[in-house]
Structure formats: structure tokens, C-alpha cells
């Protein structure tokens, strides 16, 4: 399989602007779960840049478990995200949920995200493969690592080798956190594939106070990056406020991750 480590010499490095996934430095992706307004995403973007984040995130199409919460600003949200990214000079990522939204996203963003709920949406995987754009492929919360590798293979088989795995927690019997972060996925993916892997500690725990320790564990385990939800006004967030960091917590996270990265580099 193209996704397997044996299929190429060395590891894949995915370059997006000045950012390298799978290179020698950790990538920090941050931003609100959803783009809510022009002002909200710009405030978030400024905070991400100020703390040393590398990529700005923001959802414009939100496929929630329930259909009733905020579902995103759609193309208007993509415009605001694009504008904010240009102002702070950071690459941007957004989630696509089908071929139609992929078409819109291609006009505005540098990286697309396939969410946990769409990991086995095979027609979307093929379309992203044909679009040849960098893609963050989240793990389905009930998917085995083998199924996840095969989802990446769908994208690669269409000629797109710019796939970044994202571990975001799996369903388990535990109820203290919404999902259980599978830290093992980091070394397992690294041994099975040449592609980079990042970890999302927001979606896995869904609890603000667990985000920083989980992010640190992921970096210590060798993750190439972190994706975290950060909202400038947590109490006003239209989606996922409880699993987002505020600005000062995000700054704290970045500082702590830099320290951990230094230590892990000494040992690796
Ligand atoms: C998200 O990143 O906002 C999201 C919906 O993630 P997941 O697909 O992992 O639930
Ligand atoms: Mn979210």
C-alpha cells in the first residue's frame, strides 16, 4: 500500500507555506471550532499568531452529532477565515463534509480537514485525492488503525500524497471523557506509515482542563503536531466552548509544548 512505510524511503514532509508537517518542528494548529463572525475569527487569528501557533483553524460546515446546534456560516465563514489567515499570514484549515463543500473550500483554504464522522466517506476521500490539496484525515471514533490507514490509501490512490493523520479520540467504555485519546496511535502510525500524525486533544476529551496535559502527552509520544480549539470568548462560543482553550490557556499551552519538544528532541 502507498500509505505504508515500506512504500518509500524516509518520511513524508508536507509543506504548507512556511509550515512543515512531519519535519523537525512541531506544528500547532489552533482556532475556534466554528467561524462565527468576521471579528471573532480575526481576534482568534491574532491570538494564535501572537502565541506562536502555525496554522489557523475554523469550521464553516459543522456536522454535529445533533442537527440542532450551530451548523456554521458556510461560504461566508470561509471568506472570513481566508481574510483572517491573510491578515496574520498563517495557512488555514477547514472541514469539508462532502464534494460540494470541498468545491467551496478549494477556493479559500490551504488545507482541508476530513472529520471523524466522514473518515469512511469514500466518495469524499476520492474527491480530496483528486483535488491534490493537503488534507488532515481525522480518525473515525469507531475506526481501527487499519481502517484509518485504508481511508488514507483512498486519498493516495487518487494521486494525493499530502495526507496528515489526526488522532482525535475513540469510543470506549469510559465516560469521564467524551472519547478516549488513543496515544498508542502515534507510535503505531509512525511505525506503519511514512505520513505525519497530529493529535487533537480538544475533540478527544471535550473537557477544557484535560486539553493541556493530553497535548503534552501527544508531543512526548512523538506527534508531529497538535490541533486545538481556541476561542477568544469561551462563554459566548456557539460550538464546543467546553472543549476550547481561552487565549491565556493557549499561550500557556504553546509555552509548555516548546519545553516538551526540546526534551523529546534530546531523546529521539
Ligand atoms: C472539529 O474539529 O471541530 C471536529 C468536528 O472534529 P471531529 O471530526 O474530530 O469530531
Ligand atoms: Mn469542534
UniProtKB/TrEMBL annotation:
Gene3D superfamilies: Aldolase class I (3.20.20.70). GO terms for molecular function: aldehyde-lyase activity; transferase activity. Pfam families: DAHP_synth_1. Coiled coil: none annotated. Keywords: Transferase. Residues 22-256 form the DAHP synthetase I/KDSA domain. The keyword Magnesium does not apply. GO terms for biological process: aromatic amino acid family biosynthetic process. It comes from Ruminiclostridium sufflavum DSM 19573. It comes from the Bacteria. The keyword Nucleus does not apply. This is 3-deoxy-D-arabinoheptulosonate-7-phosphate synthase.
Amino acid at each position: 500500500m502507498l500509505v505504508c512505510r515500506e512504500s518509500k524511503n524516509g518520511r513524508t514532509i508536507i509543506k504548507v507555506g512556511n509550515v512543515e508537517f512531519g519535519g523537525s518542528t512541531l506544528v500547532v494548529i489552533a482556532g475556534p471550532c466554528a467561524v462565527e463572525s468576521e471579528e471573532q475569527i480575526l481576534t482568534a487569528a491574532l491570538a494564535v499568531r501572537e502565541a506562536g501557533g502555525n496554522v489557523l483553524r475554523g469550521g464553516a460546515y459543522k456536522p454535529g452529532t445533533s442537527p440542532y446546534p450551530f451548523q456554521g456560516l458556510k461560504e461566508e465563514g470561509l471568506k472570513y477565515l481566508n481574510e483572517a489567515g491573510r491578515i496574520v499570514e498563517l495557512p488555514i484549515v477547514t472541514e469539508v463534509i462532502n464534494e460540494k463543500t470541498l468545491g467551496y473550500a478549494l477556493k479559500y483554504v490551504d488545507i482541508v480537514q476530513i472529520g471523524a464522522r466522514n473518515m469512511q466517506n469514500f466518495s469524499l476521500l476520492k474527491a480530496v485525492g483528486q483535488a491534490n490539496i493537503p488534507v488532515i484525515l481525522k480518525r473515525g471514533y469507531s475506526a481501527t488503525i487499519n481502517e484509518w490507514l485504508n481511508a488514507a490509501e483512498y486519498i493516495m490512490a487518487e494521486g494525493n500524497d499530502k495526507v496528515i493523520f489526526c488522532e482525535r479520540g475513540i469510543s470506549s467504555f469510559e465516560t469521564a471523557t467524551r472519547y478516549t485519546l488513543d496515544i498508542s496511535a502515534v507510535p503505531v502510525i509512525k511505525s506503519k506509515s511514512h505520513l505525519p500524525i497530529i493529535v487533537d486533544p480538544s475533540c478527544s476529551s471535550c473537557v477544557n482542563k484535560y486539553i493541556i496535559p493530553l497535548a503534552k502527552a501527544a508531543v512526548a509520544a512523538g506527534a508531529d503536531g497538535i490541533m486545538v480549539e481556541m476561542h477568544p470568548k469561551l462563554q459566548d462560543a456557539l460550538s464546543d466552548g467546553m472543549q476550547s482553550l481561552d487565549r491565556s490557556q493557549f499561550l500557556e499551552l504553546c509555552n509548555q509544548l516548546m519545553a516538551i519538544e526540546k526534551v523529546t528532541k534530546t531523546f529521539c
